[in-house]
Design goal:
The structure holds 2 protein chains of 2 kinds.
Chain A (H helix, E strand, L loop, with lengths): L4 E5 L3 H13 L3 E6 L2 H11 L3 E5 L7 H11 L5 E5 L4 H9 L4 E4 L4 H12 L3 H26 L4 E8 L3 E2 L3 E8 L4 E7 L1 H12 L6 H26 L6 E2 L3 E5 L4 E3 L5 E8 L2 E9 L5 E2 L1
Parallel strand pairs in A: 1-2, 1-3, 3-4, 4-5, 5-15
Antiparallel strand pairs in A: 6-13, 7-12, 8-9, 8-10, 8-11, 9-14, 13-14
Helix pairs in contact in A: 2-3, 6-8, 7-8
Chain B lengths: L5 H14 L5 E9 L2 E14 L4 E7 L1 H11 L10 H24 L6 E2 L3 E11 L5 E8 L2 E9 L1
Classes of the chains: A alpha/beta, B alpha+beta.
Amino acid sequence: MSGYKAMIVDDSAFSRTMIAESLREIGCEVVGEADCIESLVEIYAQCKPDFVTMDLILPGADGFECSTALRLYDQNAKIILISSMKDQQTEAEARRVGIVGYIQKPLDPELLLGIINNIMSPDTLYLQILDRGVELFKESLAQNFTRMTKSPVTFASAGMNNQQFTSLGISAIIGIIGSYSGSMFLDLSTATAEKCVSALLNRPPKDRDETLAMVAELANIVAGVACSMLNKQDKAYGLRVAPPTVFSSNSSAKLASPSLDLHSYLVETDFGTIFFGIGFKKGTTLWM
Amino acid sequence: MDVKLINPILAAFFEIIPQIGFESIEKTNLSLVGSSIDYSGVLINIGMHGTIKGVILIGMSLDSAKCFASKMMMGMEIDTFDYIAQSAIAEMGNMVCANTCTQFTNMGIDDVDISPPTVLISDLGTANLPVNQTIMVSFIVDGIDVNIYVGLM
């Protein structure tokens, strides 16, 4: 028996009754019901459920739009899609709007309980990727930086933050995609970047583009190698790396990744300090 | 860059923006720019990976970003572009790009996924995208100027 509080979103009174019956059968308390987007957020705010069951076909806004509205109000809202339809496109769209579970009608209470227990319990794969991932990214930076520039690095924690940080001048951002998406930041001053180029090429950079290209390449190698190492440890991660974007500013640019808890480090090198940040987004999904 | 990739992004923008509280969207310009973009204000950066890969940036001035976030939050007054406002703007970028993936799926490209959004704030900054050419699409959304930079390959 689960003891969790549930809210049901469905336009059919009959369906709501059936879903409520299934939920009660597995020990959940139904604390709220909504039949359309207009009342959805207000009822959610009042009844504060542990999770929401969402019908796909609703009058006006569909289950995806309702889920989007709910996640705009509470980005941690746990939504289980309940639909008679089940196809690849619906699943893909559900994942993208942040729905964490998907079960087909007619409901099998045991399967539903499996999904509920899974979304309410700690996400072990996520905890693993935080535990292993952050260390492997640091290892990849240390190994590759040392290999490329023939000089050592040391790490000092700059703490956990999901607030903004101020760029030292040049910042490469790498998007990470897979079971858990994330971002990696490599941020350094122009002077540090130029010294790195000189160490790599045995000559000063030809121009600013060459310096920026070096930062992009270093970030790409660090993220690519780290993701490969993680995928080797567990194929379930399925991590891939999006191409880097490099931002530079003469004034102090600020960067923020509001959906990530960023693990950040100040990396001391012979050429100056590098700010290094890595964060993953939680995204438990169980599909039945 | 294949200009056919623009239509799914436009479709996503026109589908998502009304859902988050905006009434009028006007596309005012579409132009080809290089791989380096100067910006002043706010940029949302979202990476893409799959058959199509690269980056989508959404830019606006700092004042526009405050107006945009305020409108998304039912008119809540926003004096400083703080964590809440940054989250709202980032979520808009996330929703537009996630919907773009759905539009790609409708075209038969079903393996594209996105990274979490990063928000950049600078008086005078430059973004170097991982492509040779970027398409810039300009919009006016309820009187707010918004630019989308598409660097996909």
